[in-house]
UniProtKB/TrEMBL annotation, chain A:
It is a multi-pass membrane protein. Pathway: Cofactor biosynthesis; adenosylcobalamin biosynthesis. Part of the energy-coupling factor (ECF) transporter complex CbiMNOQ involved in cobalt import. This is Cobalt transport protein CbiM. Forms an energy-coupling factor (ECF) transporter complex composed of an ATP-binding protein (A component, CbiO), a transmembrane protein (T component, CbiQ) and 2 possible substrate-capture proteins (S components, CbiM and CbiN) of unknown stoichimetry. It comes from Thermoanaerobacterium butyriciformans.
Automatic annotation (TrEMBL), chain B:
Part of the energy-coupling factor (ECF) transporter complex CbiMNOQ involved in cobalt import. Keywords: Cell membrane, Cobalamin biosynthesis, Cobalt, Cobalt transport, Ion transport, Membrane, Transmembrane, Transmembrane helix, Transport. This is Cobalt transport protein CbiN. Forms an energy-coupling factor (ECF) transporter complex composed of an ATP-binding protein (A component, CbiO), a transmembrane protein (T component, CbiQ) and 2 possible substrate-capture proteins (S components, CbiM and CbiN) of unknown stoichimetry. It comes from Thermoanaerobacterium butyriciformans. The lineage of its organism: Bacteria, Bacillati, Bacillota, Clostridia, Thermoanaerobacterales. It is found in: Cell membrane. NCBIfam families: cbiN, PRK02898.1. Pathway: Cofactor biosynthesis; adenosylcobalamin biosynthesis. Its main location: membrane. The keyword Transmembrane applies.
Amino acid sequence: MKKWMLLTVFTLLLIAPQIAYSMHIMEGFLPLKWCIIWDIASLPFVVVGFMTISKSVKKNPKLKMLLGFAGAFAFVLSALKIPSVTGSCSHPTGVGLGAILFGPFAMSVLGLIVLLFQALLLAHGGITTLGANTFSMAIVGPIVSYYIFKGVKKAGGPNWLAVFLAASIGDLLTYVTTSFQLAIAFPAEVGGFTASFLKFMGIFAVTQVPLAISEGLLTVLVINLLIAYSKEELIELNVLEKEGKLV
Amino acid sequence: MRDKKFLMINLILGLLVISLIVFPLVTIKNAEFAGADDRATEAITQVDKNYKPWLKPVWEPPSGEIESLLFACQAAIGAGFLGYYIGLAKGRKNVNR
């Protein structure tokens, strides 16, 4: 009898839309071991990102402004907590744009800066969880975005679709990664990693779906603006062919 | 002509985003639309009942209002730069024309 009640309560908790844990992993909520592991995992990507950035800026100092633009976009989008169909809020990441423009690694540095700002001033995320959050938002997200963009273009898909899918799937995969990080640090007593992963995924991924679509649409909008007014920089970055048409 | 079509597309994209944001607000009646922060404990302690967060943030905004002020600043700074860049690029393009 008691077991049944426990099970019912557990199931209710699992499906109740109010139970929402989205966004970054909070300070102190990841065991020290995993904090260090994700710090180490993130470090090489940030170093490579830093080198990519200084290389492309050295080659063409004019791109510095566009780099700032990509950073500003992530800054804005990750400040917007948006309501979702699960009855809770989360925010987009905005890193897909930078990945499309500057390649898969540049955003690791910019994303890290955004996360640091939020951890220090907003108590959002955390210093100890910085490595884990960087890995999901500034490394996995942009890499996924970049290769989806290239893949759709290679398959002959239209520009707008490539941009849309890159940004929205990159956004979604960021939160899948967060679920993975939490599940591997907190495997369930029954069902272990898989059960935890599904639990966190149910909370994260569903909340994030409409937000990911929003991020995709906004990234298409911004790329439209860049194509209209900043075409030379895009051609310089090989994002646009010389006679590239409107996305 | 092309400018007009371009404007229309971006207008539609903007409206789509707004409707995606408004949709859950209108359709879900009793939701709290809470953020993550307080719920984090619940989700994790459900899985591991003995887990205690081992560190508190260095500094926390003293209230929800202050927190939203800081988030608004973050968005404003970013949006300001986005607008500056687009304005500058557009101005440059007009001069070259």
